[in-house]
Amino acid sequence: MTGSKATIVFAIFTFIAVSKAHEFDITKFGARPGSEISKALDAAWKAACCAPKPSKLIIPKGHFCLNVFEFRGPCKAPIEVRIDAILTGPKDPALIPKGKQWITFSYLNGMTLSGCGTLDGVGGAMAWPSNNPKKNAHSKKPCGLQYVCMCIYYKQTFIMSKP
Questions:
Q1: Which pLDDT tens digit goes with each residue over 82-94?
Q2: CATH 2.160.20.10 corresponds to the domain 23-159
Q3: Distance CA 34, CA 81 (A)
Q4: In terms of pTM, does the model score above 0.85?
């Protein structure tokens, strides 16, 4: 009887370990609340995207700064990006290179964006002060988000700043 209990306990722990093996939390890649997370997010994304089985990239609760990032595929398996944090974009528009967007999702199939987080693109600080139609009628301002993929999005909050 003791041997069968040990086998059951071992099987349960193995199942838990395997089910958690494909979660990639950015804090395990060096991200810290209050800091800029591009490098940690890039490392976590590459690991999750290369996983041979479905995976989940987690941006946990907290306030993180993000300058520019592209979630780029194709990935080897379906992936869920769970954002439970407040992600704040750069206050200085010069940090977004010309022709780039704050956050881009591209060449992804089977990606799910989920979580109860907030994406704050800091539009008031970045775009609106320089958005004078008389001076810049044909000027193209950076876009907050860009999607080039077959993805599912749900339960996300976007802050749309207004002048």
A1: 999 999 988 887 8
A2: yes
A3: 20
A4: no
